[in-house]
Design goal:
Shape: globular
Order of helices and strands: EEEEE
Strand content: 25-35%
Structural class: mainly beta
Helix content: under 10%
Largest sheet: 5 strands, antiparallel
Number of strands: 5
Distance between the termini: 26 Å
Radius of gyration: 13 Å
Number of helices: 0
Strand order of the largest sheet: 1-2-3-4-5
Bound molecules: zinc ion
Length: about 70
């Protein structure tokens, strides 16, 4: 789907088996997990709850909780 607002990801925060990014606009957390022996996969989290939508696509940027002035 086109026309959805894009997330503005922070710099990646790397852990041993995961890379995390946070959207400045909507506080969505994108976690890319890469565990040994498994294919990497991506999870999305907000407020401590995992967000899952059909097709495992990226949830749209909703700009709900945090508003950040444009650069
Ligand atoms: Zn966002």
């Amino acid at each position: 789907m086109r026309g959805e607002a894009r997330h503005t990801w922070s710099d990646p925060y790397r852990e041993i088996y995961a890379t995390k990014r946070v959207c400045w606009s909507c506080a969505l957390v994108k976690v890319t997990r890469h565990e040994p022996g498994l294919r990497p996969w991506t999870e999305f989290w907000r407020d401590g709850r995992r967000i899952r939508i059909a097709g495992d696509r990226t949830p749209p940027c909703e700009c709900v909780s945090v508003r950040t002035a444009s650069r």
